[in-house]
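Session log. Operator J.P. requested a structure for one protein chain; no other inputs attached. Running the standard single-chain path with C-alpha cell output.
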Amino acid sequence: MKRLLLLCFFTLAIAGTKAQDLQSLLAKINAYHDSRPIEKLYLHIDKYSYTAGETIWFKAYTTVGIDNLLSNISNIAYVELLSPKEEVVSSIRIPILTGLGMGDITLADTLVEGTYRIRAFTNWMRNDSAIYFFNENIQVSNGRLDNVLSRSYLDSGNYTIQLQDIQGTPLAEEVVRYEIISPGGRNLRKGRVKTTDQGQLEIPFKNDYAEAKLSIHFMNRAKAPVEKIFKLPKATVLENSMQFFPEGGNLLANAINRVAVKALKPDGLGIKSHTTILTTTGDTAATIETNILGMGSAPLFIQNTEPMVAYTTFDDGTTIKSELPAPLSSGYNIQMNNGNSDKLFAQVNVSTDKQDGSQIYFVAQYMGSVYYASKQPASKSELIFSVPKTDLPNGVLTISILNSQLEPLIERPVFVYNEKKTLPLITNVDTPTSTKRKKITVSLETGDPTDTIRTSVLSASVVNTSKLKDNPKMAPNILSSLLLSTDIKGYIENPGYYFYGEIKTSDIDNLLLTQGWRKIDITAPLEIVEPAFFPEKSISIKGQARKLGRKAPAPKANMVLVPTHNFMEFIDTVANEEGYFEFDNLFFPDSIKFLITAKDEKGRNNIDIIVPAETSPVIGPNKNAPGEQNNVNATFIDELLHSKKYFSGLEAQGLMEKSIAIEEVIVTAQRPRHKASERSANLNGPGNADQVISAEDLEMCTTLEMCLNGRLMGVMFRNGIPHTTRGGGEMQVILDGMYVESDMLSMINPMDVQSVEVLRNVNYTAIYGSYGGNGLIIITSKTGADAMRSSYIPKGIATVQPKGFHIQKSIYKPVYEPGSETVLKQDLRTTIHWEPNIITNEEGKATFDFYTSDEGGEYLITIEGLDFNGRLGRKTLTVDVK
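Structure written below.
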C-alpha cells in the first residue's frame, strides 16, 4: 500500500514526459522487488569462542527486507560449520516456522584448533549469492585431543612456529610434515622438518605464499596425531596502509568534498591514525583523526584538478605519504547530513558545465523498494534535497542521484535509525548481585501500552564473561546483523561496537563511506525471470524415472516412497510425461533411509530411478577473513584449561564421554592385523585397523548389514547405516578405495567381500582428514568394485537418504534445590544458560530463570528478538556473582 501511495504521489507531483519515465522506472523496480523479496537470516548464538567438546546453541531469525518482518517465504534453513581449511565439518537442516527456528552443533573432539565460521542460509537466499547469508567467525580451541600450544610469526624470510605442550614444555626433536595450499586450492609446497630442542621450526616464506594456508602434522605428547592450520601473511614486508574514499565516488574541483579514510594494519584490521591532507600549494586542507577501527572523514574544499597529497601517522608511530584520487573538473558530487533527528539532508554539487537546467532526480530506495523521490533542475552549483525520516525505515538505505535520462550519477548508502521504530524492551533481574548456586529470575516486558499487539519472540543467553577472553559486548548482534552487516560487503571489525551503548551513527556513516560505497552497475537487469532457487516449504525428494539402461523417460511411472524404519508409511505418486516425479510435504529427522520403487504403466519394473544429489552453495572467500586467527589454543589458553577442568568433572559424573585419544589408545592395543585383504585401500596399510572382519567371518550371513550389526566394536547401526557410538556421527564407508554412501551396505552381497576394516582410533583416522571424523569402514571385495556395483543395483528400486531435520537437543540446566536430580558436582559452566524460545504474552511480559555456577564473575545476560511489526530489540544486563 505504501508503494502504491508513493507512485500516486509521483504521478501528481511530477509532470511531463520525464515524470512519466520516472514513474515507469519506479513501477518497474518495485515490481522487480516484489518478485524477488530479500530474505535475511540472523543467528543468535550463545557466544563466539568455544573449545572442542562444547555445543554451539543458536536461535534463527529469518526476516524479509529492510522492515525485518518475520518471513513466511522459507520453512527450511541450513546451518553449516566451516573449518579453517574451508571445509564443511557439520551441516544441519532445521525447520523454520513463521521465520523462527532453533538448533545446536556439537564440536567434535577431533576438530583442528582455529577460526571456524558459521554459515546459515535458506534455498531462496541462494538467488542473491552469499551476500545475505549469515556468516560469522567463531574461535575454537582444542584441549581434548590437541593439547599443543603454538606461536607463529614471520621473521627474516622464514615463517617460524614454536610448539609446546600446555605445561609449557617444548616439543623438541619432533618430525613435522607441512603443506602450503594457495587460496585457490593449489599445492604450493610440502616437506618435512624437525623441531629444534626448543620446539621451533622454520619454513621458508615467499611472496607467492601470500594469504595461503599452511598445514602441519605431528604427534603430541600422548602420541596422538595433531594438525594445525596457519593463515600466512600477505607479504614479506608488512606495512600499514591508508585508503581514501570520496563521498559519492569522485572528488569534484571547485567544490566542497567529503573524504573518508580507512587505516589498516597488515592483517586487515583497523588502526588509529592522524592524517593531514595538503593542497597543491602545501597548505593544510583537512585533518582526519580515525577511531579505534581506523575510520574517519572530513570535509575539504578542492580548488583544481591537481592530485592532493596526505601524510599519515599511525598509532604505532609509523608514517606514510599518500596521494588522493585526482579531482574531476566536470561532474557531480554529494554530501549527506544525517545529524538532524527529523530530516535527512543531501547537497548535490554541480560543475558549471552541467548547470544546463536539466532535471536531477533524487531517490531514496532499498534494493529497488522506493521510499522517497523528488527532482530539481540543475540550474545552480548546489542542489539541496531533504527527506522526512518518519517516512524511512531503520537500516541502510541507498540515495541514488539520476540525471534527466534517468541514468545513475551518484550512489550513496546512508544509515537511518529512529529509536521510535525499535522494540521497547524493559528487562530486570530480581537481584543485581548473587552468590554461587543461586536462582536468578529475569523478567522482561516488550512493546508499549498503546500497541495493538505486544507479543514478541526473543532468545536469551547467559555467559560468565570472566571466563571469556573476547568481549561479548562487541560481538555481532541482531541489530548489527539485520540493520548493517547484511547490506555491507566486506569485513566489519567489531560490529557490536556500533550498537554498544548509544548508537554510533557518525561511526556507522564512516563505515558506509569506506565500505558501503560502490560503483553503480547501470546495466543490471530488472527483468522478472524465474528464480534459480525456489522457497522450500517442506523437505522433498525428486528425480526422474527412465527406461532401463536408457536416457529416455518412463512416462506415467508409478512411484512409491517407503521409509525403511516403517514400511507401512509409504507415499505414492505418478511421474509426469517426462518421467519427473516429486514427493513433497515430507517431515522427518536426520538418518532416515528411504526406498523408491517404480513400475511402468504395465506394472513392469524395467526402470532406472535417478535422484540427483543435493547441492550446497559454493564456499567462497570468507568476508570476515581479517578476523581469522592463528594460534587459537595459545590465545585462548585460559578458556582451554578451564574447559579441561569442566569436562573432567562431567566425565567423572558420567555426563560426558572421555576424550577420544585416551579411550582409543587403550582399546586398540593388540589388534589382529592378518585378516585384511592385501588389496585393501586402507591408507594406513592393510590390517592397520581397530578391527578386521575376514571373508570367513561373513560366510553364514544373509546381508552384510545383518552380519556387521552387533559385531563391530564402537559401531551401531541405525536404519542400516553405521554410526559411531561416540557422538553418534555417521561413519564413512570406503568400497575398494572409493568413498560411497553408507546405505550401500544393504546392497553388497557378503559372499563377495574379502575383508572389512574398522578405523576408529584417531591414529588411524587422522590420515583421512575430515572424512575420518566419525571413523571409517573399509570394504575390500573379492572381484573388484565395478563388477560388484553393477551386480547389486536392482531394477525399479533405489535407496536414498536425504538430509532430514536436525533433532534439537536441550541444554543441561542444573537445579540446586533440595531433592533435585539435575545437580552438577563441579559446576564450571561458561555458558550458564540458553533460553531460545521466549514468547511474551498479550501484555508483553515473560520471565525465565537460571542457577549460577560454582564460579563467580560478571554474568552477562543478552536478550534479543523482535515483534510481529519487525521492530528489533536487544538488551544486556549483568549480575555480579560473588
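Operator note: The radius of gyration is 31 Å.
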